[in-house]
Amino acid sequence: MQKFDNIDDYIADLKKKREASPTCSNTRYNLGVAYLSKRDFMEAEREFLVAIDESPKMAEAYVQLGGIAMQRGDLEGCLRYNITATQQRPFFAVPWGNIGYVYMEQGETDKAIKALKRAIKYDPNFVQALSTLGAAYFNEGELDDCIEVCEKALKLADNFGPAWNNLALCYTEKEDYKKAIECVDKAIETGFDVSDEFLKELEKHR
C-alpha cells in the first residue's frame, strides 16, 4: 500500500483516481473519509452522496453521512441515514449503536435500549454502545444492569470516561460514595467532562 507524507497528498492521489474512474464508489468513499479527517464536511458529504448513488448498498457511507448530520445537530437526519445503513447491512453494529445514541438524545430510552442491545449482539466489544446502554439503564433506574455493562466496557477500554461517569452516578444512587468518588476521579483522569453539579454533590462526601 502506498504511503503518503500527509493527508493533502493522499487526497490529491484519490482525486487522480476519481478522474480515471469517476463511478468508483470506493474511491469516492475513501475521499470522503479523507475530507472528514480535515473536517471539511461539505466536500466529505458530496463524496459520500456520490458513493451511495453509485453503490446504494454501501452501508458505511450512510453511517458517515449520519455522522455529518449529527455534527450539524440534525438528529433526525442522523437517525434516517443510520436506519438506511441497517437496511443495507442488518448485522452491522455501528449504525445500531448510532441509532441507540440518537434515541437517547431524543429521550426515547426504550427504543435506545433495543437498538443498543442489537449493536452489542453483533459486536460484543463495542465499547461505546455498552457505555451508552449503561446510560440508558441508569435513566430507567436499572442500576445493577448499568454497572454490569459499564464494567464490561471498561474491561475492553479502561480509559473510556463515559463508562466511569456512569458508574459514579450508579454508586452515588446506591449511596456508596467511596466507590462513586473513585469512579468519578477515573472519569476525570480520562479527560471526561464531569458535570460541575455532580462534582459538587460528591465533594460533600470526600
UniProtKB/TrEMBL annotation:
Gene3D superfamilies associated with the record: Tetratricopeptide repeat domain
Organism of provenance: Maridesulfovibrio salexigens (strain ATCC 14822 / DSM 2638 / NCIMB 8403 / VKM B-1763) (Desulfovibrio salexigens)
TM segment ranges: none
Entry superkingdom: Bacteria
Keywords: Repeat, TPR repeat
Signal peptide: none
Matches recorded under InterPro entries: TPR-like_helical_dom_sf (IPR011990), TPR_rpt (IPR019734), Ycf3/AcsC/BcsC/TPR_MFPF (IPR051685)
Coiled coil: none
Repeat region (TPR), residues: 25-58, 93-126, 127-160, 161-194
Protein name, as recorded: TPR repeat-containing protein
